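pls design
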């Protein structure tokens, strides 16, 4: 389904998230408007993504290490030093090929991404998209390589 043209009725959801998604949309504003449209009045809208100039390796190491430690990618927890060995091509154990492919795909996406910081995005969501207030914003997630914004409709 196209995140810029969702097949849901207005105010269908209690909450909407866009974690590491909108920055890759051809028109992020259309995606934000659609998120607002399908969100019930008073519901939270959560969005995150990399900041401009983010060091992709630092960001990816932080994100993937969390996923691996939680066992989300299967194969059990992987310690950060083993993860770094995978990225450096020194280890070819469980998930190595998958992790390398994700890393390369993310590097390509960063070339066409639309970047925000928490302040700019908060202002845009309130002033242009129609959300009512900021609940939380931060430019510190993942070793200060990403932003996180929560607003209310």
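designed seq:
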């Amino acid at each position: 389904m196209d995140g810029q043209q969702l097949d849901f009725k207005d105010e269908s959801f209690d909450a909407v998230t866009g974690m590491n998604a909108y920055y890759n949309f051809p028109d992020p504003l259309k995606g934000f408007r659609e998120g607002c449209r399908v969100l019930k009045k008073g519901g939270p809208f959560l969005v995150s993504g990399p900041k401009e100039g983010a060091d992709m390796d630092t960001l990816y190491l932080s994100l993937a290490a969390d996923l691996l430690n939680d066992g989300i990618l299967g194969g059990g927890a992987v310690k950060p030093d083993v993860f770094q060995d995978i990225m450096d091509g020194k280890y070819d154990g469980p998930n190595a090929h998958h992790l390398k492919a994700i890393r390369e795909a993310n590097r390509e996406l960063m070339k066409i991404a639309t970047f925000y910081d928490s302040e700019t995005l908060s202002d845009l969501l309130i002033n242009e998209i129609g959300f009512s207030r900021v609940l939380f914003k931060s430019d510190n997630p993942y070793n200060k390589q990403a932003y996180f914004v929560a607003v209310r409709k």
